[in-house]
């Protein structure tokens, strides 16, 4: 019974430290905890439990203060075990609906940028959005059109309604007959195949088919290879940089320089989101859990959004580890659900 009670007291005090630190951005002392818990525990008991929590790695003791701050381990325990579920306020829900009120008259870029700004504004962190990735959809139709000067227009349509127009340049020209044969190969043999798998299919066929139709697969492979060079140039939206730059965590010049480089380069964040897209659900990376050194002082929360049940893109929020996790999870969940409805109704 005493063990259970000790665990309960530790959790109450750890939760109070984390929630107070998230709001106030200052180390939390035993007097503050006693007041927050309405003097349920004596200051001596609180100090003893704080010492235990520090020894166990859940909080740490900045040399400039008598108070304590959470560690990455502390945040993780809080998120997994102590964090309350939080609903958005009616005002926040109205703000989301208002943001998408005119979506039928807006193009995809406008919708994605609005989504990033909305995530940033609601969370007071930075919002990140990866545009729909066509290679995560299934092929419905491909049309290849010679437009002269060794250039081919590829119109690629997926089963979810995404359309990609790509201008492909080659060292040689393709005749109308060649392009028609290659289009037929895609449309009759590969319809319903994930776009990302077509490349592997053609590579295998190119290596194994008999010589009589080798050239067809070789040319189809060359065209898709050129297309993938353009598809790999992810469209990525990062909004709210000024909000996180102004936070106390970045008053240090070195921390600020690292953040500015991350914002400018973007590739690291995109790589994390791309890895997250392989799994469903909301993903939370806290500080040192991040796979790249450049973001081990930040937390990133992401979720996939879907078109026709296919995960085609992702959105999320990034900021210092001192973030309001419960509120941000609710923001990500609500914005994701509304964005999916918008894209579905728009027929993207």
The run of helices and strands is: HHHEEHHHEEEEHHHEHHHEEEH
Strand order of the largest sheet: 7-3-10-9-8
Q: Report the sheet-strand fraction.
A: 15-25%
Work out the radius of gyration.
26 Å
- Helix content class: 40-55%
Mean pLDDT: 84
Which structural class do the helices and strands define?
Answer: alpha+beta
- Please provide the count of β strands: 10
CATH superfamily membership of the largest domain:
GAF domain
If classified by CATH, what would the architecture of the largest domain be? 2-Layer Sandwich
> pLDDT under 50 segments (min length 5)?
none
CATH class of the largest domain: Alpha Beta
Q: Helical stretch count?
A: 13
SSE inventory with pairings:
Elements (H helix, E strand, L loop, with lengths): L1 H23 L5 H7 L6 H13 L3 E2 L8 E2 L1 H11 L7 H10 L8 H16 L2 E5 L8 E10 L2 E8 L4 E7 L6 H14 L5 H14 L2 H21 L4 E4 L1 H5 L7 H13 L1 H10 L6 E4 L11 E10 L2 E11 L4 H22 L2
Helix pairs in contact: 1-3, 1-4, 2-3, 6-13, 7-9, 8-9
């Amino acid at each position: 019974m005493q063990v259970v009670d000790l665990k309960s007291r530790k959790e109450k005090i750890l939760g109070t430290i984390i929630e107070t630190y998230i709001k106030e951005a200052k180390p939390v002392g035993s007097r503050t905890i006693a007041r927050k818990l309405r003097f349920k525990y004596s200051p001596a008991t609180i100090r003893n439990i704080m010492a235990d929590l520090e020894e166990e790695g859940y909080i740490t003791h900045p040399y400039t203060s008598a108070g304590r701050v959470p560690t990455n381990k502390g945040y993780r325990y809080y998120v997994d075990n102590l964090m309350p579920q939080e609903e958005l306020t009616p005002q926040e829900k109205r703000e989301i609906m208002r943001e998408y009120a005119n979506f039928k008259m807006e193009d995809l870029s406008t919708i994605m940028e609005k989504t990033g700004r909305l995530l940033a504004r609601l969370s007071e962190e930075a919002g990140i959005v990866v545009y729909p990735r066509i290679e995560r959809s299934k092929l419905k139709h491909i049309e290849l059109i010679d437009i002269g000067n060794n250039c081919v227009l590829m119109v690629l349509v997926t089963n979810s309604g995404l359309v990609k127009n790509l201008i492909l340049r080659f060292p040689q020209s393709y005749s109308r007959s060649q392009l028609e044969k290659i289009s037929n190969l895609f449309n009759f043999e590969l319809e319903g195949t994930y776009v990302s798998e077509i490349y592997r299919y053609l590579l295998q066929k190119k290596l194994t088919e008999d010589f009589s139709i080798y050239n067809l697969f070789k040319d189809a492979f060359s065209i898709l290879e050129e297309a993938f060079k353009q598809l790999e140039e992810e469209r990525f939206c990062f909004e709210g940089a000024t909000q996180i730059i102004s936070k106390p965590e970045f008053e240090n010049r070195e921390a600020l320089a690292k953040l500015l480089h991350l914002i400018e380069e973007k590739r690291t964040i995109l790589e994390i989101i791309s890895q997250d897209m392989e799994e469903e659900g909301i993903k939370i990376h806290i500080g040192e859990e991040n796979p790249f050194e450049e973001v081990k002082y930040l937390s990133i929360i992401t979720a996939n959004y879907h078109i026709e049940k296919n995960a085609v893109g992702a959105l999320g929020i990034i900021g210092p580890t001192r973030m309001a996790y419960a509120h941000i999870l609710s923001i990500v969940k609500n914005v994701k659900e509304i964005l999916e409805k918008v894209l579905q109704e728009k027929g993207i």
